[in-house]
Amino acid sequence: MADPVETPIGTVTAEHFRPGRVRHQAVVGPKFLYALFNPRDQMHTVSRAFMTFVRDGELPYRRLVVNDHIVDEAATRLKKQASMRNAAAFVTTLDESDLYQFESVSEDVFNEARETFVEWTDLNASFTDFVVASHMNHLEIDHILTYDRHYDAFEVTPLPYHG
What we know:
Blueprint: E1 5-7, E2 10-12, E3 25-28, H1 30-37, H2 44-55, E4 63-66, H3 68-82, H4 84-96, E5 100-102, H5 107-119, H6 127-139, E6 143-145, E7 157-159
Parallel strand pairs: 3-4, 3-6, 4-5, 6-7
Antiparallel strand pairs: 1-2
């Protein structure tokens, strides 16, 4: 069993990322990826802990799903707020790793997200959040690795669990 990891949000164990039922895939949100590829981010150790737990076989995830909107937001944020080196490492890792699975957003998913975005005026979520939530619904994936509390409003399960 992997050792607990001390992070800015407290001690993190594999249990913080374990789904309620066994799933082999999860969507990886842009803030989670930003933290993973930016060692100066306060949540970097949490993202690294998750990857360690996956690598050590402590968690059931075998596919980490990203889409064009997630990649765009994470890469842009890394380039502008961290460095081009961090952004390049991110996109190179996506290309070379068998763990990450790229799924394009269809026109139907985009249109559904746009409609929901316009209707839900009281939710302070980004358009990307709506696209990701709609895409997750279409892919039938219910877990997302994120530090964005907006996903609590959608029918998805944010990881790490906050308990």
